[in-house]
Each structure stands twice: as C-alpha cells, then as structure tokens.
Amino acid sequence: MMMIRLKAVMTRMFQGKWLLVTIAGLLVLGTAVSVGAYELTKNTVTLSIDGKEKQVKSHAETVKEVLSEHDIAVGSHDIVNPSLDTKVSHKMKISWTPSYQVTINIDGEENELWTTADTVKEFLSSEKIQVTEHDKVKPDLDSSIKDGLTVELHKAFQVNLNDGGKDKKVWTTSITVADLLEQHKIQLSEMDRVEPGMDARVKTGGQVNIIRVEKVTDVVEEAVDYAVVKRKDNNLAEGRERVISQGVEGKVKKHYEVILENGKEVSRELVKTEKISDSKDKIVAVGTKEIQHTVSRGEPSSSSREFYVSSTAYTANCNGCSGITSTGVNLKANPNAKVIAVDPSVIPLGTRVWVEGYGYAVAADTGGAINGNKIDVFFNTKSEAYSWGRRTVLIKILD
What we know:
The chain is α+β, with helices and mostly antiparallel strands. It has five helices and 24 strands.
C-alpha cells in the first residue's frame, strides 16, 4: 500500500516539472519570435559621418532621431542631408558633415567663420576668397581644417625695384624693405646702399632703390711736363731763339681709389704716386745781339734800326674792338691800311716801320697785351689774321 502511494506522488511531481519546462520554453520561444519580428521591422540606413560610411538599423522615424541614436549632436552650421525632419525609409542614406569655427586673418583684419570644408583651399574657395600665386597663406592650402584654426592670408602687391640701375616690378607680401629683399633673395655687399632704409615700410607702387657700391683701384700713367729754360746769347741776333737741347717729358704712375655707384664713377682720390722717369728741361738760347743789315732791293735803308719781335694779328671786327685806333685811324673806313699796334715805350706811335712778311706800316695803335718786343698787325679779314697766326718777325724802324 505504501509503495502504491509513493508511486502516485512521484508521478504527480514529474508531470508538474514538465509543465513548468513547457511553459518556460513557450515563453522563450515567444520572446525570440518577438525580438526577431522587432529586428526584422527595422529600417536599414547608410550613415555617412564626416565622409565615413557605415550601415545601421533603426526604428527611428526621422533623420534627427537616427543621428540622436548615435549620439550625434547637430550644430546649427553643420550640413545634414536629407534634412533633420525627413522621415526615415529603408535603405536611406544619411550624411552629416560637422562644421568648424575658423578665424581668417587677411592682412591683419580678422573674422570668425564657420565652415564644413576639409582643407584650407576649400575653405577659402567656399568663402570666395581669391588667392593668387604671389599671395602667402599659412598654414598651407592642403592643410586640414580643424576647430579653432587660424588662417593667415597676406595679399601680394607690386613694388618698383631698381637694383643697380635696372628697373623691374616685383610682387611681395613683405612689410619692410628688409623683408622684401629677403623674400626675393637679394643680397647686399658691405658697401651697397638701399633707399629707403631697411626698416622702412613698403606699400603698393612704392619705390625701392638698391645702389651697388664698389671700390676699385685705377692706375694711370701720366706725363710730367718739362720746364723751358731760356738763356741769353750775345752771339745770336736779338729776337731770335735757338733750341740747344730738347726737353723730355717725365713719367709717373698714379694710383687712384675710385668709388663706383651702379657702375658710374662718383669719386676719385689719389692714394699713391710712383715715379717712372724724370723730366729733362728744354734749353733755349735767346738772342740779344743787335744786327745792322744792308739795304736790299725792296727793303728799307741800312740806317734803320732793326730787331726781332713776337707778332700776332687782329681785325677791326674783333670782340670789344671799336675799329678806331688809339691815334684815331678808322680801320673800318680804311680796310687796306697798313697799321700795327705797338708798345709806345719800344716803338713810339706814329713811327713808320717795315715788318718782315707784312711790308711798310705805321705804328698807329696800342693793345693791352702788347708789351715789350711785341706787335699786333692789322688785317681786313679774319681769315688773313688767322693765317698770320703767331710768329717771330724782323721789324725795322724807318724814322
């Protein structure tokens, strides 16, 4: 009896456990089916975050909710495509490009801008800021944009540059003359000069002059003139001269320190003189002997006094000439007159004379430069006077 009762209890316990297992299994199966059904009803979305794509599944109803599910806070300057309130559909593509705040400094003037550009070049292009090949950009155009970045743009301008006398126009972004020379790799020697100075500011259309200065030595061989020594000779007729020994020029070598600016000489200083050879004096004998000549046909009598004089020629039309001699002879009215200008202390005015190569004449005029044994003979024309030139002639006093 006891055995029957125990068997009945065990049977009831076994049947109860299976009932619990069955219920638990049904619950698990129901949950799995529910989860599977939930997952199967999600939309597949391609999400592009700052250019990087990934596929996600979502029950979100709008684009904004999808982004929010992935902890993406959309800023007011960000770019979202499609718009945030667009309803989500299966296989939709959603792209989000974050914006960054960038400071743009153009020649010292700053502005803060928002941008979604990837590089500095794209940023400047999106803001319609033109950059030429001569402009200077920092950082480089290919640099990536990041939040808080400062972009510096120095716009190039033209400057007139004269380097050693050669003009040209150059582009520059420099502030001072020193910066300009460095930018264009222009080197200066120790003596070169720059106008304006190195610290001067450069501006559009400004002028910068580089004066190339050099110091050179110039060696010149020069002649040293000889002296003329005159010696009286009683054996030589008065007024005559005879060269006893010819003069010889000496030679020296002069060293000059020459300063050139842009190739042109601006100063010359003698620093040294070297003697190459000495000069030799010219010795001239001057006659002092008075000679009485016999009268030949066509010449004055032997009783006249004669001597040699230095002679020049003049006309009535010379500068400052009145045409009237000191004794009152009007040479313009008497163009064929035979007149000489004399030193009255040597040949008194009014004296009749005979001049070698000129003929008979009257001492009727004087002159400021006619002193001693000198005379000035009158001719009607300048060509005759030029032809006479300067010569030593024999003069004979007739009365």
